[in-house]
Amino acid sequence: MMTNLIQFPRLGLEFEIDRVAFSIGGINIYWYGLIIAAGLLLALAFAFHYAADFGIDPDRLVDVVLVGTVCAIICARAYYVAFAPFKYDSLWDMINLRDGGIAIYGAVIGAAVFGGLACKWRGVPILPTFDLVSVGFLIGQGLGRWGNFFNQEAFGSNTNSLFGMYSRATQEYLTWWQSSLAEQGVTVDPSMPVHPTFLYESVWCFVGFFALWAFLKKRRYNGQIALLYAVWYGAGRFWIEGLRTDSLLIPGVGLRVSQVVALVCVAAGLVLLAVLGKKYRNVPFEVQLAVGSTALKQAKAAGLTSEQIARIAGKLPVGASHAAFVAQTAQVAQTNWAARAGALAEDAPAETAAPEAAEQAETAEE
To answer: Quick one: average pLDDT of 92-121?
Structure first.
């Protein structure tokens, strides 16, 4: 069913929605895919815009993003297939994304693991990268959930709330799965409105995005934003998942896998936030400025060590303006590394001779 009548009875709204946005050469392009792609692009735009504020080189970040994105999609699908409440008929059905079927937590896990490995490969700081992309995740997730609206999926049980939603797709799904839901203790009336849980999660993610965006200049240590993301999204996902009628379940246990993962994320995140918050409470936080790939090659060719390069590049207080980070990073890119290396070489003998000079002075006085 490509076209669907979607109604919000208590709001007096109804929409005739076609899942297909347009067709090219007989191939249907679905709104679901377009919205997911738009969410990804907005998240990337945010990440590249604020890369300097986190001490990340945008050029090397490109490689990390490519690896992380591809692996996130693969892991999102693998996660869904692993916990789907039905069996796939073929390998093609398992990898076919055109009808939906990806899990956000699978994407987050894949991006974290393989994106982290890509950071090590490209010499990008891992924790600052996790902080940056966590905020971007909330953009992608907040917008991406509207793909579920066009597919009429990711909805909940019956509700009389103001936002109750009804469509032919929700009725058909609940009719088909009514007996299975009853076994889980969920009683539904297919003809009644349901919770638009995709909407709840979208709003939750956008609120989280603006909150973390406002907190960027107030963070106290690398990794704090990522932990706040894990707690915020996990808390929202836990209660929203409890409303859904299409949850992925842990085989043989019957627990909703996303609720279990969310609970673990919230618990672990709160513990780490408490411990690290105490550790860094009175420690000034400065961001090490990024050194671009070209500048890094020039600096190493001049014989500078990693410690010397970092010292020359310098740091800025985390609360410095975005313009200051951009300007200082641009200045680092224009550094004459050969000259700086020469200056360090000239200073080294003097530094080495200083203790000897002091010792000679003491001897003379005696």
So the answer is: 85
